[in-house]
Amino acid sequence: xxxxxxxGVDGVIVDHQCxxxxxxxxxxxxxxxxxxxxxxxxxxxxxxxxxADIDVNVARIFSDTALALLGQSGISSTQISAIGSHGQTxxxxxxxxxxxxxxxxxxxxxxxxxTVADFRMQDVAAGGQGAPLTPMYHHHLLNxxxxxxxxxxxxxxxxxxSNESIFGFDTGPANTLLDNWIKCHKSSDYDRDGLWSRSGLxxxxxxxxxxxxxxxxxxxxxxxxxEYFNLEWLSGxxxxxxxxxxxxxxxxxxxxxxxxSHIPDEGNVYLCGGGTHNTFLVERLRxxxxxxxxxxxxxxxxxxxxxxxTAFAYFAKRTLAKQSSNIIQVTGAKQSRILGAIYAI
Length: 345
Description:
Layout: E1 8-15, E2 20-28, H1 31-43, H2 48-73, E3 83-85, E4 88-93, E5 97-101, H3 104-111, E6 115-117, H4 121-125, H5 135-142, E7 147-152, E8 155-161, E9 166-173, H6 175-186, H7 195-198, H8 204-211, H9 214-217, H10 231-235, H11 244-260, E10 267-272, H12 279-288, E11 292-296, H13 307-320, H14 328-331, E12 341-343
Parallel strand pairs: 3-6, 7-10, 10-11
Antiparallel strand pairs: 1-2, 4-5, 6-12, 7-8, 8-9
């Protein structure tokens, strides 16, 4: 799994019989590949030759991640039922098109393991947003409990799970704006522990303008991505007089508020994703939701960094079993569908 933060590939081996993660690894992207991916996702433009090169390079890293997992665990490729590969999203327009690179055929041939990939387009073709897909896995992870699971990736998404219903959607930006803003001003890939944002003050005028964006008013089903929430979007709200650290502080508050408006007044809330390492963001979520017990998905047995990867292992298992993996009240699809293309070995 590689998310919109564009930092690398998270991989796991999951034993579905005993519901355990057997091995886990993070394979970072090279600086050059990060740069190529950011340029591609931000501009939305590339020659076919350049797109093919990036696709092949990302597929190779996905394959290397799978092989590293086998080496770490001592498990043979013949013992693996399938690889569930989300790929790297380079374009997502909910309800119209969603494109992930790291071609499943390349991964299957490079690893010798049947690969399930391209999970989102079947839902989109059925009239859905193509995202979020993880609420079904979050329901599985909670194992009969009620609760909320929030993924703090490049984009934040929330799953609200009860005995009666499963609901979820993308709440808005999480790491994508924070990472890109600090990269512009501090030459750092991310705001470690939120230290830079702590040094700033909330710009109330800017915060109110950001929160007034139509996306936050839109009713679910809805999904979004860095194609929408990016520095070009942000620059439309700036006067040029704001200090960079105040903007960063305001972006933390934007994320915390846009998530908190959908957290129930009380109950268990589990966080996962790269944003959990931003201790300041987590502090703000706890402050804004004093009656909720906010903890990490580690409490459910899955490390915060590997929930998404584990989800796509779960989806691959369902695909091979010819079971649907989209939830129509979440994505808005007209029917439940079996997701993913199978590249058999």
